[in-house]
């Protein structure tokens, strides 16, 4: 964790195309935060290997001896007060690259510990985690089919709560493939403003799930 009192936000991006809307949103968020406040981790450009290897398995069970690339990611998170996951929604979940990053980085001995007497002991209470999913479908489809609930159960309850991180803002960019560039930019503006405001807010005020404005409903 950072030793000074300046906020540090790690923005993690999982998309292979640097010209994608996902990267555009991450860059907009970085620009919306104060200079020096944000670090953007482009997992694809940096070549992060999402495969959970035998070395990862040994480290998981032993609670140490993690591979160097995992240690590097953990050190970046140790310097951060806030984490923002920016990703396209693939099959109502995160891309494999981001899932592998979570699998390998948020491991036993660093993100949590397990005790036979006390159970799971979360270790990331210092961190606030925000979600910025880029969704192709509109908000109505997510509501009708429970897609948003399923995604947030995976990430908010299954990851954020499990490791003891504070729940930050969740801001979907729906209708990401709509033909109107102006309408898409309006949803991006809303999402970026929501997350940037939550990063700056005290932890007790940061939690929210903000629906983005949309140009069309089913």
UniProtKB/TrEMBL annotation:
Belongs to the NAD(P)H dehydrogenase (quinone) family. It comes from the Bacteria. The keyword Metal-binding does not apply. This is NAD(P)H-dependent oxidoreductase. One of its GO terms (molecular function) is oxidoreductase activity. It is an enzyme of class 1 (oxidoreductase). It comes from Streptomyces salyersiae. Keywords: Oxidoreductase. InterPro entries: Flavodoxin_fold (IPR003680), Flavoprotein-like_sf (IPR029039), NAD(P)H_dehydrogenase_qn (IPR051545). The keyword Oxidoreductase applies. Its EC number is 1.-.-.-. Residues 8-187 form the Flavodoxin-like fold domain.
